[in-house]
Amino acid sequence: MKVGKIIGLVFVLVAFIVGMAIGRGGSAGAPVITASSGGASFSGGFRVEGGKVVGSGNAKSVAGPPMTDIVIVVEDGQSIQEAVKNAEPGSTIQVMPGTYKETVYIDKDGIRLIGIIQQGKRAVLDGEGKLNDAILYSGNNIVVENFMITRYKGNGIMSQAGNNWEIRNNIIIDTGVYGIFPQLGQNGVIEHNVVSGIEDAAIYVGMSDNVHVAYNDVFDSVAGIEIENSRHAVVENNYVHNNAGGILAFITPGLPIKTTFDVIIRNNFIVGNNHKNFGAPGSTVSGIPAGTGILIMAADDVIIEGNIISDNKTIGILITDHGHASNVTVDPESEPNADRIMILNNTMINNGYDTLDEIKAIMLTEFKAGAPDIGRVGPSEGSCIINRHRYVTVGVDDFSECEFTNTADIANYLLEPVPAMDIHGEDRGKIAYLGICAGCHTYTGRMVGPSVQIIQALYMDNPEGLAAYITSPVKKRDDYPEMPPQNYLDEKTRLAVAKYMLEVTR
Ligand code: HEC
Question: How far is the CA of 248 from the centre of ligand 1 (A)?
Answer without folding.
Answer: 25
